[in-house]
């Protein structure tokens, strides 16, 4: 045929089209990802493209400068009113005249890709559940007595091929004035779930709505609540903010909150109310900070552990506190945000909560699996999300196993004599000279007095208040490497170790990291009790991993991923010297950062990812550590540093 050849970049899709075919039409026919909100009416400017002129021998075409039609009146008007970037055309207005190569810039792609910053970068492909559609509705007519809503539905079917919509009363009430104000041209925000069903009419605006739509990815932790306000067109995080979970006043950790409910009838209602109020405050602050109207926030995705999940939903978490740890529901949930009494977003905003895996393995763990994709790799990955409870995945493309292990709060610096949260003044990293047994360390917020490598001698240190989770892990591992404690975890005396930093404390010994007591400051030591607390935590973590390895029938893994805010700060060497994780080459230990938060962002930006994680969760094999007799045996063997029986060849290398 002699019809002109059209080649789109970067997709490389190509086809021949009759002279006069609009570029947008050609793109649609070829399945090229070219955006449009106004349906080709030349008003939204989402369809911008850049024609390339010149010779393209690779494609076998020569492109003449008149390969596309001249600017038409619509384009002229758009350009004079808003200005088109140089070289850009409106894809819905420019028509094909001769062979042409057309580039679709990233901002004109619906499914544009957002690259994550974290190490194991999975790109997020934009495909949000809620999108904008510009639509022209027929005016009502005395002779055709249909409702405005039904005529909107008909217009959406004709102009966007959307078969069916449903609306809340509140949105329905807004429809008539908006239609008239917009002179029967309006923009609607429609939410399409990944499950079968009608599109949900979230909101309506007269004319073309140009202020975008936003969503929230919320990581609801037992200690902090973190929210990311995200532009649903670009995936850009406009602002992130976190606040303390107000439920802390009912109990530091999850189990103490469950016991609060057991002991105080109605305690669950109090906690539900507290967390919902905090969420509303957090969302309001994010909107104010970014200048995004609350009404434009149309979606929220939550990830959380099972207890937080139930307390958010207003479900008594009592059953999660006792065997067999039954969840009220493990499926994902979709419902309007107003059901959670959230007011700082659109009245029809939709909430999605990722599925839970089991009574101890929650939606936060599902989000880690969504972000790290253990089931999509050939090699065997061990993924450890360290917190008060560790969630552990072991898997490859054949099978994915999961368990949770009760590590307790020691890794977060709790139950440690000089322990504190990771905050300014906390020792976060430590090195002990194996010869002199003198420590040097790095303190959060005190970079000023440190050496070039970021570590400072104990004598130079000021403003130290305690030691945080990553600091205590490094301290125990460094003490072992410096010979200050034996493989069983026993701290030696000054005589045995040759350092006066080992001081007696009762019948055991402590290692003095920092002593400012002469000036009324703190005395920071690692006590025998601290070592025992860390040993218990790391044994639980290791035993959980080993149990999964037994179940998988393997005696080693290929790689280890440390997830969680805390995982990001653990040094691979120290984690392995301590025996927190099984032996692997050190360069195969990576940190995934806040993988649960990333999973929430993925589910927010890409509606298909919701179906993906639901399918993944159905196939994850849950291993129950509490009832598995081998767990105890693994736990006892893992008490030694690094381990009583398992070899660690990569440590001697
Ligand atoms: Fe809206 Fe072209 S599709 S301007």
TrEMBL record:
- The RACo linker region domain is annotated at 120-210
Highest taxon of source: Bacteria
GO terms, molecular function: iron-sulfur cluster binding
- Domain called RACo-like middle region: residue spans: 214-371
Question: Any idea where the RACo C-terminal domain is?
Answer: 380-651
Protein name in the entry: Uncharacterized 2Fe-2 and 4Fe-4S clusters-containing protein, contains DUF4445 domain
Organism field: Primorskyibacter flagellatus
Q: What is the lineage of its organism?
A: Bacteria, Pseudomonadati, Pseudomonadota, Alphaproteobacteria, Rhodobacterales
């Amino acid at each position: 045929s002699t019809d002109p050849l059209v080649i789109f970049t970067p997709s490389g899709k190509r086809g021949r089209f009759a002279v006069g075919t609009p570029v947008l039409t050609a793109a649609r026919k070829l399945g090229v990802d070219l955006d449009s909100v106004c349906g080709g009416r030349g008003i939204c400017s989402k369809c911008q493209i850049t024609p390339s002129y010149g010779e393209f021998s690779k494609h076998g075409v020569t492109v003449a400068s008149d390969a596309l039609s001249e600017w038409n009146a619509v384009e002229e008007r758009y350009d004079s009113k808003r200005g088109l970037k140089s070289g850009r055309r409106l894809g819905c207005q420019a028509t094909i005249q001769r062979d042409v190569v057309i580039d679709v810039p990233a901002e004109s792609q619906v499914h544009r890709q957002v690259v994550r910053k974290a190490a194991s970068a999975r790109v997020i492909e934009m495909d949000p559940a809620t999108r904008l559609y510009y639509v022209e509705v027929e005016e009502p007519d005395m002779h055709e007595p249909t409702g405005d809503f039904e005529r909107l539905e008909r217009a959406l079917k004709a102009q966007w091929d959307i078969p069916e919509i449903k609306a809340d009363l509140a949105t329905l009430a807004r429809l008539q004035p908006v239609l008239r104000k917009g002179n029967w041209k309006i923009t609607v925000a429609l939410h399409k779930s990944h499950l079968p069903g009608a599109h949900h009419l979230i909101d309506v605006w007269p004319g073309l709505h140009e202020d975008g739509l936003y969503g929230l990815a919320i990581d609801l932790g037992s200690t902090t609540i973190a929210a990311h306000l995200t532009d649903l067109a670009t995936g850009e995080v406009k602002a992130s903010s976190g606040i303390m979970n107000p439920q802390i006043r009912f109990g530091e950790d999850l189990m103490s909150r469950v016991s609060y409910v057991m002991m105080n009838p109605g305690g669950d209602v109090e906690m539900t109310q507290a967390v919902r109020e905090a969420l509303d405050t957090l969302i309001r602050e994010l909107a104010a900070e970014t200048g995004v109207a609350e009404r434009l926030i149309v979606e929220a995705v939550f990830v959380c552990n099972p207890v937080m999940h139930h307390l958010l939903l207003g479900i008594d978490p009592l059953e999660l506190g006792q065997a067999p740890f039954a969840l009220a529901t493990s499926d994902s949930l979709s419902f309007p945000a107003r059901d959670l009494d959230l007011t700082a977003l659109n009245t029809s905003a939709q909430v999605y909560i990722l599925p839970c895996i089991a009574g101890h393995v929650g939606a936060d763990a599902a989000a880690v699996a969504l972000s790290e994709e253990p089931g999509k790799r050939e090699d065997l990955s061990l993924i450890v999300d360290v917190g008060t409870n560790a969630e552990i995945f072991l898997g490859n493309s054949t099978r994915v196993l999961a368990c949770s292990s009760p590590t307790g709060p020691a890794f977060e610096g709790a139950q440690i004599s000089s322990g504190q949260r990771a905050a300014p003044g906390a020792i976060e990293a430590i090195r002990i000279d194996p010869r002199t047994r003198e420590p040097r360390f790095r303190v959060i917020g005190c970079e000023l007095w440190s050496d070039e490598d970021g570590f400072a001698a104990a004598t130079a240190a000021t403003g130290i208040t305690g030691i945080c989770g990553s600091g205590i892990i490094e301290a125990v591992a460094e003490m072992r490497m410096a010979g200050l404690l034996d493989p069983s975890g026993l701290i030696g005396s000054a005589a045995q170790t040759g350092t006066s930093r080992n001081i007696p404390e009762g019948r055991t010994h402590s290692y003095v990291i920092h002593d400012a007591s002469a000036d009324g400051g703190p005395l920071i030591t690692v006590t025998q009790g601290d070592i025992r607390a860390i040993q218990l935590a790391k044994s639980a973590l290791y035993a959980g991993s080993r149990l999964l390895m037994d179940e998988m029938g393997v005696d080693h893994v290929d790689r280890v991923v440390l997830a969680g805010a805390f995982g990001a700060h653990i040094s691979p060497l120290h984690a392995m010297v301590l025996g927190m994780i099984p032996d692997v080459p050190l360069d195969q230990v990576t940190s995934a950062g806040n993988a649960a938060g990333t999973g929430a962002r993925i589910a927010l930006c890409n509606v298909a990812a919701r179906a993906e994680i639901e399918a993944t969760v159905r196939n994850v094999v849950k291993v129950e550590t509490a009832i598995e007799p081998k767990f105890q045996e693994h736990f006892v063997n893992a008490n030694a540093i690094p381990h009583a029986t398992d070899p660690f060849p990569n440590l001697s290398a």
